[in-house]
Give the backbone structure.
Amino acid sequence: MADGGPVVHGYPHLETVRSAITALYKRLSYDTVHTFDTSILPADVAFSDQDDLHLGVQRVAREMVRHLRLPDARVIVSFREMEHAANVELAAGPEYFIELNDRFRTHRRDIGAALAHEVMHVYLHRLDLVFPGTRDNEILTDTATTYLGAGWLLLDAYREDGASSQKLGYLTPEEFGYVLAKRAIAFGEAPETWFTSAQAYTAYTKGLAQARRDEQQPPLTAAGWAGRRRYAKDRRHALERGSGGAGASPPGGAYSFSRGSGGAYSFSRGSGGAAEPLRVSFPCPTCRQRIRLPARGRMRARCTLCRTVLECDT
């Protein structure tokens, strides 16, 4: 929890975030991910100063449990002084104990955000979905919370001005915006209407622009003129290297071209060398799983993991 200190911006964890989205689809399946097609709404977690603190926090915790479909998980919430925003005790269940930072006694608007992250820890624990290392695992938790419909609260808890700042979670505001935008594109939502923080809205728009760039990388037909021209040059170079000319790669070799943060495509042939057709591999703009297609021109492909239909010019 950044409270008054500097807030990191940009996309320092972007590759881990993308890996987390892929892991969600692989572990849950397309059908299960799409059962979370409706986000938690502001009215679901509204918490006024007139509400009883403990009854209110239990109500919000139950709403998070309901959203994540954890029917036999009973969450008990308490408050204490601590460095972090919250902490959850992960055991076999069915009871889970969450501790919230004492500051939330008077900052009730952000209790939903803190509980969303901690209840997601319970959900991922039950799935046995974990990334190695504390940092990457927390990034996975933030990403899953946001992609499955509760993490917009974490972004909305971000506020910053000349005198003070606050941010919950391990992702930067722009990374939260990126994941939220990926969800909005996949599920047809408009989360920008839910924000109470102007800074959160700005971060979302930046994340949305980054997410849109994922959809504009070659060999997708939505790529711009410069990207398509660069791709054609790289493909021609790969064909020349595979034909046995100067600088040729051995049979089955791959020729990689990382172009921009949204797309890293690579070309390869089978073990038969030049006799094998050239193929291109690139990340799906929705789930980031690698897709491998023949490099032979215009075609339509469907990602086997997230079922996104892709218009390509390979």
